[in-house]
Amino acid sequence: MTVPTDTAVCRVFLVDDHAVFRSGVRAELSSEVGLEIVGEAGNVADAVNGIVATTPDVVLLDVHMPDGGGVAVVRGVADSRIDTQPVYLALSVSDAAEDVIATIRAGARGYVTKTIAGADLADAVRRVADGDAVFSPRLAGFVLDSFTGRSAAPEPHLDPELDSLTPREMEVLRLLARGYTYREIAEDLVISIKTVETHASNVLRKTQQSNRNALTRWAANRHIS
């Protein structure tokens, strides 16, 4: 783990729509030498306003949130034209190629999944603050493929049915495609089983699929897993 050798403090802003998850990350990073949590937000508008107000060094950025998710946060802060733009490190439950590529193209400096250990997350924050690019294992390949023209990830806005899904519905779709049960999805996303059932019903309706097996094939044809 990288440990700061001077007295400089890296100021961090947390963006995630799950308050319990934010609390855990805040507790983990606050105990680390050289890191200071200067603010947090659970939606795009609050995140943009908070980042502009606190001017952090690094923003830990959730990818999937209502109103455009992490990409909308990056663009909103960029449009504010503050003197010093922060560095963005995506911290997401998703390891899908299209999410990684879209977030990096928007301006993030790294992308790690929420399975990362606390000490490794702290190290990743320090590294992006120092100018490094940081990715969870196997995700770097998605970015390299994208910028060399070999990416299998679908280009955005070419699939009306897919584009009609909300970020949360996309999360449910990916987990359904991986064979997760409703109970497992509920535990993974920290929502109720009834909420999962509602999202699954919306996904089936919007994608015009009759059942879960058909939905799984539909997702596979779009490289969603």
From TrEMBL:
<dbReference type="InterPro" id="IPR058245">
    <property type="entry name" value="NreC/VraR/RcsB-like_REC"/>
</dbReference>
<dbReference type="Pfam" id="PF00072">
    <property type="entry name" value="Response_reg"/>
</dbReference>
<keyword id="KW-0804">Transcription</keyword>
<dbReference type="InterPro" id="IPR039420">
    <property type="entry name" value="WalR-like"/>
</dbReference>
<dbReference type="InterPro" id="IPR001789">
    <property type="entry name" value="Sig_transdc_resp-reg_receiver"/>
</dbReference>
<keyword id="KW-0597">Phosphoprotein</keyword>
<keyword id="KW-0238">DNA-binding</keyword>
<protein>
    <submittedName>
        <fullName>Two component transcriptional regulator, LuxR family</fullName>
    </submittedName>
</protein>
<dbReference type="InterPro" id="IPR016032">
    <property type="entry name" value="Sig_transdc_resp-reg_C-effctor"/>
</dbReference>
<feature type="domain" description="Response regulatory">
    <location>
        <begin position="11"/>
        <end position="129"/>
    </location>
</feature>
<feature type="modified residue" description="4-aspartylphosphate">
    <location>
        <position position="62"/>
    </location>
</feature>
<feature type="domain" description="HTH luxR-type">
    <location>
        <begin position="158"/>
        <end position="223"/>
    </location>
</feature>
<dbReference type="InterPro" id="IPR011006">
    <property type="entry name" value="CheY-like_superfamily"/>
</dbReference>
<dbReference type="InterPro" id="IPR000792">
    <property type="entry name" value="Tscrpt_reg_LuxR_C"/>
</dbReference>
<keyword id="KW-0805">Transcription regulation</keyword>
<dbReference type="Pfam" id="PF00196">
    <property type="entry name" value="GerE"/>
</dbReference>
